[in-house]
User: Fold this.
Amino acid sequence: MMQKHALGTPRNVSKNKTILINSDIIQEDNKRYEFVDPAFELWLKKQYLNQSYTT
Assistant:
């Protein structure tokens, strides 16, 4: 997963996760992470994962 999406090192992923939580972009819920803003999630999927808005 990390290589497929060019996420960098495990330390980098951990650091970015902390930044996203502190910026209220994602939140942890029952040991799972979810986007706080569903519109941002759709935009991110469209821009970086090439998914359509309808999926």
Observations:
- Strands lie at 26-29, 32-35.
- The radius of gyration is 12 Å.
- Residues 10-22 form the longest helix (13 residues).
- The chain has a mean pLDDT of 89.
